[in-house]
Amino acid sequence: MACQCCTSGLAVSAVVAAVLLVPTHYYEPSAEDPSAGKPVASPDSQEDELASSLARADVVILAAFVTVTLTAYLCDWIQRKLMERRINKLNERLSASVSRLREWEERRTRQEASLRAVQAATSEYNLLLYLLLQRHRPPAASVSAPALDTLENERDFIIF
After folding, report:
1. In this predicted structure, what is the pLDDT of residue 83?
2. pTM of the prediction?
């Protein structure tokens, strides 16, 4: 579409209006000019004057213009309402997804906080256990090097 700002209904209405602005005798040569050769009507018969001043083709074209315009407006209105419904459904789905995402984020944050607390408690427990074991361990005896003569008697002793 060349012009994004107008709908197809407006384009059709503009074309029909342009056709209506052209006098009937240009596109229907058999139609006569209703005002030519008629006597001036009295002001009392304004309805007759209006009916006689309009050619039959002009009335048909005017009726077609009104029908096309109303149809185009109705189609545009229906399309707009359908789009509004789609947008509302999409907004509802989006808000539901955002709320679920926020719940998941809160749950993840709580789990991370719990995990950090458990890690801190585990580290503290391990430290206390280590200190307790160090406290109750018997003192280590000094380890003396084995005598050289006992090593020579063993078969597994290899000198490099």
Report:
1. 95
2. 0.44
Distance CA 144, CA 152 (A): 17
For residue 134, is it within any domain? no
Assigned domain for 154 exists:
no
Show contacts of 34-38: CB within 8 Å, 24+ apart.
none
Amino acid at 7: T
Question: How far is residue 35's CA from residue 28's CA, in Å, rounded to a whole number?
Answer: 16
Query: Residue for token digits 């059709």?
Result: 12
Residue 81 located in a structural domain: yes
Determine, yes or no, domain membership for 148: no
- Domain span holding position 39: 8-123
Give the model confidence (pLDDT) of 23-70 as tens digits: 666 666 665 555 554 555 455 555 555 555 556 667 777 788 888 888
